[in-house]
Amino acid sequence: MIVDLLSHAASYRGIHPGIQRALEFLATEECQALPPGRYEIDGKELVAIVEEYLTKLAPQAVWESHRRHVDVQYVASGTEAFGVANSLDALPVKMPYSEERDVTFYEPGHQRLVVTAGTFLVFFPQDIHAPGLAVSEPSPVRKVVMKVRGDW
Fold first, then answer.
1. How many CA atoms are closer than 13 Å to the CA of 43, on its beta-carbon side?
2. Residue 87's pLDDT is what?
3. What is the four-CA torsion angle of 51, 98, 88, 90, rounded to 10 degrees?
4. Burial of 135 (0-12, 13-18, 19+ CB in 10 A)
5. What is the 3-state secondary structure (H, E, C) of the chain?
6. Which of 134, 138, 136, 143 is CA-nearest to residue 72?
7. Domain 2-149 is in which class?
8. 146: pLDDT confidence band, cut at 50, 70 and 90?
9. Is 128 a residue whose pLDDT tops 90?
10. pTM (2 decimals)?
């Protein structure tokens, strides 16, 4: 997992072409102006999902991981908590991997990470995550999730 400010994205050049492209796109005015929705930036290899929502309380958390995609999640406005765990934490599987949806669901973990506007997170296949959580009370967030397809 990577957590950093988008203003530091240049530090990650060369990590993976898709992740680099995702970070470059997140920094554009075009991205900032997009209304909520799903956008193919580079076919199915790089997809942007723009979301605006109220964060949810911990009991509503959905803990997940992906095999074919890396999530680059950028909090454009607001403050959001993320549940985080590593596959080594051995969270019990709630729903086995779905090839069609590229997701495994897990029972809740205990670690949380709070991020503010301007922060991006990169979740690799070993990174179990529960996005969209309230810090204390539900609050509005604008977020862009970049789905980066690759051989991980």
1. 3
2. 85
3. 100
4. middle
5. CEEEEHHHHHHHCCCCHHHHHHHHHHCCHHHHHCCCEEEEEECECEEEEEEEEECECHHHCCEEECCCEEEEEEEEECEEEEEEEEHHHCCCEEEEEECCCCEEEECCCCEEEEEECCEEEEECCCEEEEEEECCCCCCEEEEEEEEEECCC
6. 143
7. mainly beta
8. very high
9. yes
10. 0.95
Give bridge partners of residue 72 from the DSSP assignment.
122, 146
What's the residue count for the chain? 152
7: left (phi over 0), alpha (psi -120 to 50) or beta: alpha
Q: What pLDDT does residue 89 have? A: 85
**Which pair of structure tokens corresponds to residue 9?**
């994205």
The rounded distance, in Å, linking the Cα atoms of 61 and 24 is 29
Amino acid at 57: L
In degrees, rounded to 5, the angle at the alpha carbon of residue 61 between the alpha carbons of residues 127 and 81 is 70
